[in-house]
Amino acid sequence: MWQQSTLTLAPRPRGFHLITDEVLAALPQLKAVQTGLLHVFIQHTSASLTLNENADPTVRGDMERHFNMAVPQGAPYYRHDYEGDDDMPAHIKASLLGASLSLPVTNGRLALGTWQGIWLGEHRDQGGSRRLVLTLMGE
Amino acid sequence: MWQQSTLTLAPRPRGFHLITDEVLAALPQLKAVQTGLLHVFIQHTSASLTLNENADPTVRGDMERHFNMAVPQGAPYYRHDYEGDDDMPAHIKASLLGASLSLPVTNGRLALGTWQGIWLGEHRDQGGSRRLVLTLMGE
Amino acid sequence: MWQQSTLTLAPRPRGFHLITDEVLAALPQLKAVQTGLLHVFIQHTSASLTLNENADPTVRGDMERHFNMAVPQGAPYYRHDYEGDDDMPAHIKASLLGASLSLPVTNGRLALGTWQGIWLGEHRDQGGSRRLVLTLMGE
Question: Could you give the angle at which helices C57-70 and C87-97 cross, rounded to 10 degrees?
Fold first, then answer.
């Protein structure tokens, strides 16, 4: 059983955002999958997907502050700077975090741990809407 | 062909640990898969899975020392600090390394390179036991 | 439908390289897949795969300069140093970026975003040729 759909996320401010509920709402077929995988893919190079803590919003804020420290804007070695100071750091963050998640499906539900949620990493100041491709496979 | 099982890893000290043998021991069905994938997923947000060198233990030690330098404890910008100094860095390391691995299966074996092994990244001082979901698919 | 093949990439200099065309050329079966996934796996621990910008080569140069800053050669805490100054940093970069990509397939094509391309991260000075395992699945 293979199913694929796209999901367009509304524009969000720079930072990390919990999108588990939005992804689940786009997957009515999930409950028909006994054993499988959900692949979530973002079609952009300046935003990312990661799994992390689904409760305390300060974790998302700390993650953003950490990445801004670790991947600075305006580093003297950047040559790709004509799209703004946030552009090259966004590309680097996107590769550090990744563009896709593969999540196990068990008995019609994502087999996430108690504290795991799906995060969108929006790394541009004005990233606009972001497009996901959801591929559900299994039996 | 889809099969899924869980594997609970005994508690390990903070650092990186080679777990290839333990994962393989939990997969008696692997030899029945001609062509496929193994998906290994960790249900936690303060531990991670990665592939790296399967021989010299100093690689695992250097990795731990590097991540402790790159993701410091007690950074002044952390707000999520009530679960201990190792907590927020553990969340960041978990996202940098990732919560899952997808590995090709060929003729009943993992098609890893000669030097590749599956590593658990334990990022908490007292992480306790960790739960994996193993999903094997193929034909 | 499952298909698997290997692809050996010619040696490349240290840095990031766009390999989308080479991967696609190795996948004549791709156009037969209506809905599926392509899994691209590198069998090495000192090179990596990532998705990033497929146009401006300065993005690849900036990425290399950033990783060289963030993961320094000759750090005082490295113990694994007998294979050269570029060796331990290469292992760390490989884990930060990852050894595999899972890409959605739609109507016989990779469903990448407009600006997304497949990058090889060559993290050794003399990495030699690199071996990929391509696993195509779907219907």
Answer: 120
Residue of B nearest to C133 (CA): B104
| Token output for B55 | 């021989």
Q: Which alpha helices (H) appear in B6-78, and where do they start and end?
A: 20-25, 57-70
Residue range C2-138 forms a domain whose CATH class is mainly beta
Q: Strand B116-122 and strand C35-42: pairing?
A: unpaired
**Closest alpha carbon within chain B to C100:** B102
- The predicted-structure confidence for B54-98, as pLDDT tens digits, reads as follows 999 999 999 999 999 999 999 999 999 889 999 999 999 999 999
- Write out pLDDT tens, residues C53-74: 999 999 999 999 999 999 999 9
CB B68 within 8 A of CB B123: no
CB pairs under 8 A between A and B: 89
Cα-based angle C113, C117, C123 (whole degrees, multiple of 5): 145
Q: What is the pTM of this model?
A: 0.98
Query: What kind and span of H or E run contains A133?
Result: strand A130-138
For A44, A118, C32, the CA distances from A49, given in Å and listed in that order, are 10, 7, 29
Pick from A41, A70, A94: CB nearest C52:
A94
**Given an 8 Å threshold on Cβ–Cβ distance, is C116 in contact with A70?**
no
Cβ-based contacts of B85 with chain A (< 8 Å): none
Does B115 contact C44 at a Cβ distance shorter than 8 Å? yes
Neighbouring C-beta atoms of residue A11, cutoff 10 Å? 11
* Mean of the per-residue pLDDT values of chain C: 98
Q: What is the DSSP string of A96-113?
A: HH-SEEEEEEETTEE---
Q: Is A62 exposed, middle or buried (0-12, 13-18, 19+ CB in 10 A)?
A: buried
Residue of C37, C64, C93 to mutate, testing the A interface (most A Cβ within 10 Å of its Cβ): C37
Domain map (residue ranges) of chain B: 2-138
Q: Are B110 and B122 in contact (CB under 8 A)?
A: no
HSE of C88, CA atoms in CB hemisphere, 13 A: 26
**CB B83, CB B24: distance < 8 Å:** no
